[in-house]
Amino acid sequence: MAAIFQGVGAAEALSSSPFNSFDSNKSIFSPRRSFSVRKGASFAVVRSDGTVNLNLKGRRAQQLISNAVATKADSAAASSSSKPGHELLLFEALQEGLEEEMDRDPHVCVMGEDVGHYGGSYKVTKGLAKKFGDLRVLDTPIAENSFTGMGIGAAMTGLRPVIEGMNMGFLLLAFNQISNNCGMLHYTSGGQFTIPIVIRGPGGVGRQLGAEHSQRLESYFQSIPGIQMVACSTPYNAKGLMKAAIRSENPVILFEHVLLYNLKERIPDEDYICNLEEAEMVRPGEHVTILTYSRMRYHVMQAAKTLVNKGYDPEVIDIRSLKPFDLYTIGNSVKKTHRVLIVEECMRTGGIGASLTAAITENFNDYLDAPIMCLSSQDVPTPYAGTLEEVTVVQPPQIVTAVEQLCQ
Amino acid sequence: MALSYLRSSSSSSANLKLLSSAVSIRRPISTDTTPITVETSVPFTAHQCEAPSRSVETSSSELLNFFRNMALMRRMEIAADSLYKAKLIRGFCHLYDGQEAVASGMEAAITKKDCIITAYRDHCIFMGRGGTLLEVFAELMGRRAGCSKGKGGSMHCYKKDSNFYGGHGIVGAQVPLGCGLAFAQKYSKDETVTFALYGDGAANQGQLFEALNISALWDLPAILVCENNHYGMGTAEWRASKSPAYYKRGDYAPGLKVDGMDVLAVKQACKFAKEHALKNGPIILEMDTYRYHGHSMSDPGSTYRTRDEISGVRQERDPIERVRKLILSHDLATEKELKDIEKEMRKEVDDAIAQAKESPMPEPSELFTNVYAKGLGVESFGADRKEVRATLP
């Protein structure tokens, strides 16, 4: 749970916190500077129960202003309109997060296929090679097992590599490295080595990419002890999770989705991170708790429109943290609504939904009025034909039907 | 496809035009009747073995067949490009134009009992193995008439009856599979070989060397063919491989470097490799070839190489142009006849596309077929042994 402690530490020692505004100074080895606060913005909130919530969105209840000098931060990316923040696409948000972290910490480097000169096959690392050079943005040959292992080895000494799998499915070739070395070295060495690595890449079912390129690896990685898994779904949480993952001392696997890279959203200009172990409340409600993550969030929100028209009030939670689950947020929701529907893109057998069902049943069984329903992808290789591929994943009408069934 | 007609070349007229191509300098060709001997323009480079002779025996019918097949493959890939842009083909589409000589030359040297396995740039190799245009286009468009019933897509074309084992999306994973095919061939003692194709990007996969090691230990008739088109998606070979001499990287395994744009050189090398592998175990062939398109349809192909380079290769080394020049210089056909063949191929492609468009999409129940082989009684079931079906309201 290092990230929470990090957050707590940061909240308590804000004057020396490493929260910097992003500035366009191009020096790689910039020392940690005293942070500056954008006038009027809050960036950390202490929750009533004492845990620190570093999520900025909609929680400006308390302002924590320390003894910093309020300077006018570089607003290189500020939009000309009167609205705060700047608009960008999800892959640009990831790139911003990565770039800011690389500016901030010279130990951060990126390794992957075609991430350097090509700019990344999904443009997440565009421009970074030019800015940071070949030693920090490394083009690897097609040898996933080796370069993932090399990243883990580098991390053992204190570097903070960000490994990109061009498609999550390719990381199956590196499974041994991720499971045995990445996950276990901290334990087997008695705490001597930490592996502050980030493994990221796009996964999920795209538009007819074929069976081998439409895999959901969350289910395979979830039982590896020692790693954390998060899934981003909006530009806001993509940037926040990327930064948090890089700052975390634990190995983090960041699951992106092939179809979400072009989502547009307005995100704050100031520095922010998202808590790695926290779920996101997308839509508060009363009747049923719908737990989802990544692309299925959008299918759920689409179904939610129909449900609202039909008179239901679903509470939608984007669980974001796939390992460990944020049972605090989820539990509170279950206690309120007493019905749970899990909508995921993972396979039915042994997927995230299956684990989540077990976790909720174990902890909150008394609060459930109905058995937990879990909608997942079919246990089949993803077919190429468009009509078949649609039927493989959960579609909004199925979600509507499931809620209606659940709320009978 | 029926064999095209032959043009008699018995008259030993002095029709040897001086070829002005910058690369190929043809020696005087013997004017015998049907067997024609051609010298490859680039010599073979060998590693740990004796290079085969540069003189390749061919015939007019074979040359015309090469022309026909390669023109068909070229047409097919260009048509696939337009279909992709029209969004009839989605997802990933990796085109083979420029590399046709490898597929054609290989087929001329082997039988349908020999196995071929390749990665995702497989449309033309599928055609070479006897696949039909309809099967390819229908598969690309995800229709029922496709070779994998629309469930595989561009990267998963297979043809079991002519020993074409695909069609694989994960880079390098097909090479151990190929060595496994060779093992089965040795096991059943049927004097056939396996050609496992991979690219210069895949040449850095560890599993390749593992499979090669085991194949060499067990003396398997495996031929590893590196189709070196010099770019692994966006990364040039010199940036990905410390030693871009892929034919030498087998170390203990012999290797041969071949001009992959010369269909006769490819044929000679594959013939040589087959004989070698049946006696001495694995051998590596490096085909020096080039792809005109980008890595896939979502890659413009011009961010990591110059347009001059692409058009330069197209002018000097295009495989179809070479065969055309060869045919014309041997007076085996007239320009017009060759142009007619190309028109005929174009028409075949257009007809096949029209037919493929008529083919329907797969039934929704097809989602659950072929997950397991029949005989289990159920089509697909999860951990709780319940058959799972999706029903949309």
* Quaternary class: heterodimer
By secondary-structure content and strand pairing, the structural class of chain A works out as alpha/beta
End-to-end gap of chain A: 39 Å
The CATH H-level superfamily of the largest domain in chain B is Thiamin diphosphate (ThDP)-binding fold, Pyr/PP domains
CATH topology type of the largest domain in chain A: Rossmann fold
Round the mean pLDDT of chain A to the nearest integer and report it.
Answer: 84
Inertia-based shape of chain B: globular
Radius of gyration of chain B: 22 Å
SSE succession of chain B? EEEHHEHHHEHEEEHEHEHHH
Count of individual domains of chain A = 2
Estimate what percentage of residues of chain A fall within beta strands. 15-25%
Helix count of chain B equals: 11
Query: Architecture of the largest domain in chain A, CATH level 2?
Result: 3-Layer(aba) Sandwich
CATH level-4 homologous superfamily of the largest domain in chain A:
Thiamin diphosphate (ThDP)-binding fold, Pyr/PP domains
Please state the overall shape of chain A, judged from the principal axes of the Cα atoms. globular
Here the CATH topology of the largest domain in chain B equals Rossmann fold
Protein topology:
The complex is a heterodimer of chains A (408) and B (393).
Chain A (H helix, E strand, L loop, with lengths): L1 H11 L32 E2 L5 E2 L32 E4 H15 L3 E5 L15 H5 L4 E3 L4 H14 L2 E5 L10 H8 L2 H4 L9 E6 L14 H4 L6 E4 L3 H13 L4 E6 L6 E4 L12 E4 L4 E5 L3 H14 L4 E5 L2 E3 L3 H11 L2 E8 L4 H13 L8 E5 L8 H7 L3 H11 L2
Parallel strand pairs in A: 4-5, 4-6, 6-7, 7-9, 8-9, 12-13, 12-15, 15-16
Antiparallel strand pairs in A: 1-2, 3-10, 8-14, 11-13
Chain B lengths: L34 E5 L5 E3 L7 E5 H26 L14 H10 L5 E3 L5 H6 L4 H8 L33 H15 L5 E6 L6 H13 L3 E7 L2 E2 L2 E2 H4 L14 E5 L3 H18 L2 E6 L18 H11 L1 H11 L5 H24 L35
Parallel strand pairs in B: 4-5, 5-6, 6-10, 9-10
Antiparallel strand pairs in B: 1-3, 2-9, 7-8
Helix pairs in contact in B: 1-2, 1-10, 1-11, 2-8, 4-11, 5-6
